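Working notes for the structural subgroup meeting. M.R. asked for a predicted model of this chain before we commit to crystallization trials. I am recording the input and output together here so anyone reviewing the notebook later can reproduce the run.

Input as submitted:
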Amino acid sequence: MKHDYKKTYCNPLSMPCCPKGDDTWAVMDFTGEVPSDYRSISDPSVLYYENKWYLYPSYGMAYVSEDFINWEHVRCEPYNMHYSPCVVPFGGKFLMTSHSNGLYEGDTPVGPFRYLGDFIQPDGSEYRPVDPALFVDDDGRLYLYCFKYEQGAHKRTFVSGSYGVELCPDNPRKFVSDMVLLNEFDPKNEWERYGERRQDTLCGWVEGQWMYKKNGRYYLIYASSGTEFGSYCMAAYYSDESPLSGFVLQKNNPITESRNGIVRGAGHGCVVDGPNDTIWAFFTVTKAYTHVFERCIGMDVLAINKDGELYAPHGVSDTPQYGPGVADDPVLCNDAGLYPLTLYQRNKTKASSQMSGHEAFYALDESMLTFWQPCDNDECPCISVDLEAPYNVCASRIIWRDIGLDYENGVLPGPYKYIIEARPDDDKDEWVTLFDCSDNDKDLNIDYRTFDAVSCECVRLKIVGVPKGLRPAVVSFTVFGTRDETL
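Returned structure, recorded in C-alpha cell form:
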C-alpha cells in the first residue's frame, strides 16, 4: 500500500531550537584550538504518554510531538539537566533524574520539576547515579539503572558495568537494597571496546543504560563505546527472571549500529513502545567536529525475532522513513522509497563561491566533518547539483553549520532562510521553485522538509537569510526522490 511521503522523517532528526553544547570540561585541549561554541543534542530518553511523544535530551529539554514528524520545543524547568535526563510516570506524578543528579518530581511530563534530593543508599549515604534510567514494572514497582566505572589495572583503562536497584514506593529516593551488578565490560564483545575501530582490547564504556520490557521479558539496553566514534552503538542483555537478575547476552548484537555516512554512530538512547504495537529505538548520532561531544539524534523501528531478541529489521536509516503509525507493517518495510539524489555529484556541482578547503563538493560527501562555505562577500550564496537524469524530487535535508556562533557576545542561532529551485530540463535555463523557505521562522540546524513532487534534472539551493552575525555553511544538501520513468 502506498503511503503519503509527507508523513516521513529523516535521520538525523530535524529538531527545533537545538541547545548549546555544554561540555566545557572536555574541550579538545590537545588540538591547541580555541574553544568554539556549538550546538548539540544527545542521549535521548522518550516517554510515550497519552498519545504524545515526550523526548528528553542532554543539554536542554524537552520536545513534544503527536506524530514524530512535527516537534515542538517546550522549555522545562529546570531546562539543562546536563546529560541523560529520564522521566517516568509514578504515583500520579512524574519522576525525573539525570547524570550525576538526584531525583525530581513534577505534575506533568514537562514539569516544572521540583528537586526532592539525592538518592539514599541502605547505609544512609547519598548517591548520584551516572547515566541513570528509571523503569516502572507492570506491577508498579520502581527501579533505577545506571553505570559505574573504576580505574583498570592497565594504563588509561577503565572497567565499567551496569547496575540496578529497586526504589521504595513511598520514598523513591531510597534504595530497597544495595545496587546489583547486571553486566560489565567484556572485551570478547567487540562492540564494547573503545575506539573508532574498537582497537582497545582492555578498555570500554558500558554506559547509557535503559530497561525495556516486552512480552514478559526484560531487556537491559546499554551503549558502548565512545560517543565520538562511528563505532558507538546500542546492545542488549535479556532476562526472563526479573528486572534485577538472570540477564543473558543477546546473540543479536549490536541492536543499532552505523559506522559511516551522515548517520554515524547509533549509541546511548532508549527503546519504547509506539502506536499499533510497534517498537522504536532512539539513539545518539555523532558529529564531533567542533567538539568531541557534538552530537544529534536519530530513531528507527525495532522488532523482536523468533528467539525473543531485539533487532533493527532495516538497520539504521539515513533516508526518509514513515513516522510511527503510518506504514501498515513497519517491520516489513518502513522506507518511503525515496533515494538521495545529490550525493557525490562532484563534477556536476557548481557554487556561486567557495572558501578554500570548504569547496562545494563537501556539501555532498556524506560527512559531518566537512562543509561548503561560500565566500564572505557572496551576497547571494547558491549551490546547484545536476542530477544527470529526470527525477521526481519531493524532499530535502539541509544540515547547517553555524560559523561564528558566539553566545557570550550575542551571536546566536536562529532560522536560516532559503529557496530550493529545480530546472525541469537541462536544455533550458528555466527554474521553478521546489520549496520556498524565504520566510522561515524555525530554528532548525538540521532541516528536513517535504513538498509536492516536481520532475527535474537539476536542483539549486539559494541562501537568502542567515542569523545575525553568523556566516552560512552547509554540511549536507540532499534532495530525495525517484526516477521519472515517463521521460
